[in-house]
Amino acid sequence: MDQDWRMASRLRVASFTDDSAPAVDSDGYIPAKVVWVPPKLREGPPPIYVRVSGIAGGEIELRLDRGSGFLMVLVVIALGPLSPEPPVPYSDLPVEHAGGLIIDTTDFGDILGVVDMELLLRPHRIRDGIRIDVVGAEMSHVVRCGPLLTIALDDEGVLASMSLGAPVAEHHFQI
What we know:
Number of helices: 1
Strand order of the largest sheet: 2-3-6-5-4-9
Structural class: mainly beta
Strand content: 35-45%
Radius of gyration: 15 Å
């Protein structure tokens, strides 16, 4: 297993919630934003920010609740170069349904700043939005978080792919 994939194991989904489906949006500044909990001032410790920088381009940020690991916001900041190859279809994989995701934060310890990771990301333009695969990850099942977000995980629950069904402005595909 290469070093980049071992780093991805830190993005393991520990469990799911029955919360309502997230809001998925795109605008002129960012390709996609997925929101389970709207950003607001709240009591308690600050969230954990995880920034995933693509080795060949692209960037994703995740905002996690420090106490529970609940994924509150996922932002695709930049796509990076699009893959010329079509993505492997999700259709042959077992499907689960959930509202939200709880990320395993045990590897993050007491980090108060931003957790930085580098992964080889492979973005794809799909009919109804975007899909981003982690190169080297073997998808074993998918989790549908409402009609606009599908997450693929490996057999250990590690993030392997995500598909966001929101119209994306054309200029985000111009690298």
